[in-house]
Amino acid sequence: MASFVTEVLASSGKLEKEDLSSKISKMSRKVEDTKDKVCDMMNKRYSDFLPSLQSSETLMGHVDEVSKEMEGLKNCIENEVQQNIHVAVVEYAKLKQQLEKNTDIISILGHLKDFHNAMEEFNKALLEKKYVDAANLLEKARLSVDSLKSSQLPLLSALSSELTVQRENLVYHLGDEWRRLVIWTLPSSKGQVLLKNMLKPLVMYPSLSTTVIEQQEEGIVLALQCLEETHKERSTPAQVYSKLLLVLYTLHSHLLDICIGDKKLSMILGELIWEDISQCIIHECLLYSIPTNSSQLEKYSTVIKETEEFEKSLKEMEYLQGDSTDLLKYARDVNCHFASKKCRDVIVAARTLMTSKMHNTVKITPDSRLCLPKLPASGLDKKKENCKEEVTMENSKQLSAWSLCLPACRISESVQQLMELALSTLCEAVGSSTQCALQLFFTVRNIFQLFYDVVPTYHKENLLRFPHLAAIQHNNCMYLAHYLLTLGHHFRAHLPEPLCEGVATFVDMVPGFRKLGAQCFLAQLNVQRAELLERLSTAHKFCNLDDGENYIAASKAVRQVIHQLKQLGTVWQEVLPVTIYCKAMGNLLNTAIAEIISKIMMLEDISSEDGEHLHTLCQTITEEGPLVFTPLAEENKNEKYQEEVSLYVKKWSMFKELVIVLRANLQEIVDRWADAKGPLAMEFTSSEVKSLIRALFQNTERRAVALTKIK
Q1: Which residues neighbour 169 within 8 Å (Cβ) at sequence distance 6 or greater?
Q2: Are 600 and 614 a contacting pair, CB within 8 Å?
Q3: Which of 648, 638, 640 is closest to 591 using CA atoms?
């Protein structure tokens, strides 16, 4: 080994000294020579001084001298030996380092040789169109380059570039060969991609089918055919799987059942297309095969089995690897998808109803009932039946049959349909799995929450512009609130846990709906109130009515007020519940007469002619005001509410007293005051009555006497 290293190092011009073994031998001989010289010198010295060593003192002196010389000689020998050993060690380290370096160089040269040979063989295989061999040789060259990465050779980047170039060259030749062997017959405007032009269309269009035509000279032809026009919007999963397997089986048997390295071409194609085609099958086929009714869920096991067989066939042809994929998981999670689809469809249907026109209405009467489904008896119901005993009420008085019933009114047809949609969705939840029931129940809650958020915003302008719609929206909200009170109770015992333990309730939403309906109608009342006050503002404060123009303006204002109230009465007739109708009309009429009373009470001087005009105007209101109360279509049934106008118009009695005072004399006013016990005293304060007397009558003794009696 030493001679080999020596030769290698000598040939490379790196070794100029003797090798280690010859150096050590030379040094050993030098030590032996030194020992011989020392012995000769000692013998000579001893013979020269022997005659003179007769006395002990002389002898001892010579012995000491010899000992010192011997000690000095020993030190000299040791120093020389240590120096030679150090030189030898240094030389050995240098030789070892050089050996390791040369070993690395030999290894690098070996990898370079392997790379060179592989690339030469690769080029040869490529020319002979042996593409599999070429791919294997390219892989061998890549491994050689990977082995050189730790050496940090400047040549490494050039080798990597060459490898990349040759790989692209191989891909180019493979593409050329693919285009030569696989011929697509497509319209010129379309792309030439298997996924885009054959697999996806077969999934998406039920009228398409595949045919395989075997031609002896030209090979196999895969063709898409359009069948007769079909009314089906989507293919069934079985149809889709059958069409796809025909294409993939044909490609596998004639083209893709060969290996490149450790992978088959079918496996490579599967890795490229599986994610896209599986998502296409899910969104264009399986999604539409999900049942829309819970009763159809049991039949869906057939689709699951068909999907399993489809994947099994793909695995046998090695298009697909692994145990389970997104496609099969989607099919197996049918309960979850059914609930999600049902919830999505329900929300879409609910939103459509909420954004539809509100003025299409249906009449609700106290005996109207929701068509609640008959549900199977729950354990709680059976327990109640077993414990049921006949109980006699001590109090013979019973609640009316109409207690807790909705009053007669009109609601939007869409809201009635919305409630029916909620009921059908809750029926689907009964008997479903826990997850499915939870999704469906909270979807129903979301329907009502969506109504709360969407309707006031979507119909905002119309609700303020049209009093008819505001009244309908008020009724809609009250209708929903009424049934939300008991809706959860009706279904709770038939739903799985935790819904049956008290979670299934809608009671918490009731106050919100009542408030929403009230706010909507109050906003409309404020609009109408503002319009009434605007009309009365044109009456010139009801002063100086002896002036013809002022009287005409005041008379016009009063007529407009009466007309507006009558119009509202007609619009809200049989729409609002009678009680709400009368309260609303009473509130608006009260606003008008309160404004008129206020303006008259502010007058400081009312002439007899002015008083007569004021009386005429006010008398018009007292006569026609009650006639605006027409909650029912049948005129004879409205008399009751017209006679009870004072119950709904807070200041009606005050207004009637004012009308009397405007035409009364001093004595009649004093008599109606009746020492603060008469009807006039019930409506006006003493200061207000005195103010009226001062405005209506001149300053006379009789007026003074009358004023003294008003206290």
Answers
A1: 126
A2: yes
A3: 648
The CA-to-CA distance between both ends of the chain, in Å, stands at 143
Q: Is the pLDDT of residue 4 over 50?
A: no
Contacts of residue 112, defined as CB under 8 A and 6 or more positions apart, other chains included, come to 144, 148
Predicted TM-score (pTM) of the model is 0.63
Quick one: three-class SS letters along 409-458?
EEEEHHHHHHHHHHHHHHHHHCCCCHHHHHHHHHHHHHHHHHHHHHHHHH
Distances (CA, A) of 280 to 64, 204, 246, 304, 326: 111, 8, 17, 17, 11
For 436-461, what is the mean pLDDT? 91
| Domains of the chain by residue range | 80-180, 190-323, 341-519
Q: What is the DSSP string of 604-633?
A: S---HHHHHHHHHHHHHHHHHSGGG---SS
Average pLDDT for 38-50: 54
Contact between 381 and 492 under an 8 Å Cβ cutoff? The reply is no
Instruction: State the greatest distance between any 2 C-alpha atoms of the chain, in Å, as a whole number.
Output: 190
Each as own residue / partner, the long-range contacts of residues 545-553 (CB below 8 Å, 24 or more positions apart, any chain) are: 545/609, 545/610, 545/613, 545/614, 546/607, 546/609, 546/610, 546/613, 551/613
- For 39, the enclosing helix (H) or strand (E) is helix 20-49
The whole-number pLDDT of residue 75 equals 74
Alpha-carbon distance of 570 to 698, in angstroms, equals: 45
Torsion of CA 341, 342, 343, 345, to 10 degrees: 80
CA dihedral 152, 156, 160, 166 (to 10 degrees): -150
Cα torsion angle, 39, 40, 43, 48, sign: negative
Contacts with 423 (C-beta within 8 Å, 6 or more apart), sequence order: 370, 371, 372, 373, 487
